[in-house]
Amino acid sequence: MKINIITTGGTIDKIYFDAKSDYQIGDPVIGALLNRMGMTLDFKVHSLMRKDSLELTDNDRQHIVDAVKQTDSDHILVTHGTDTMVETGKWLLEHAPEKHVVLTGALQPAAFRETDAVFNIGCAIGALQMVGPGAWIAMNGQLFDVTRVTKNVAANRFESV
């Protein structure tokens, strides 16, 4: 199985800029993480954009859909900010239903010692090998149908609805 990974930014790729005392989205980390985890599946990383998901527009979502449709694999992992991940997942389900797409991200940057990024990525890779066509979200150790999930901001987790 070949997995195409499309990165869009979000907390998973945030790094701390000390000179600015600010977090900004840096280079995608997923390729290095997968190599460190000993990933044996064939994968390719495509950095599509570096945006906080709250800044994504419908035009950006269409750009993500176009990138998914143009991949040479039916199995696509999209790293994405968590705040609007569900909205983008619904766009993908509507406009690229023939692809097997799993979205994941992190509630803490991958660069942090206490991050959920590696756990979420591992769950997403496993899920991607099992799901049928459609769009799914892998977060907090669970796989969610994009039409039946919400981010509970107060509890800082994803939940079924």
What does this structure look like?
This protein is of the alpha/beta class. It has a single domain, classed as 3-Layer(aba) Sandwich (Rossmann fold). It is about 25% helix and about 35% strand. It contains 4 helices and 10 strands. The chain has helices spanning about 30-35, 60-70, 85-95, 115-130, and strands spanning about 1-10, 15, 20-25, 40-50, 75-80, 100-105, 135-140, 140-145, 150, 155-160. The strands form 3 sheets. It has a 6-stranded mixed sheet. It has a two-stranded antiparallel sheet with strand order 2-3. A two-stranded antiparallel sheet has the order 9-10. The longest helix has 13 residues, at about 60-70. The termini are far apart.
Task: Label this structure with key terms.
alpha/beta, Rossmann fold, 6-stranded mixed β-sheet, two-stranded antiparallel ribbon, 10 strands, 27% helix, 34% strand, globular
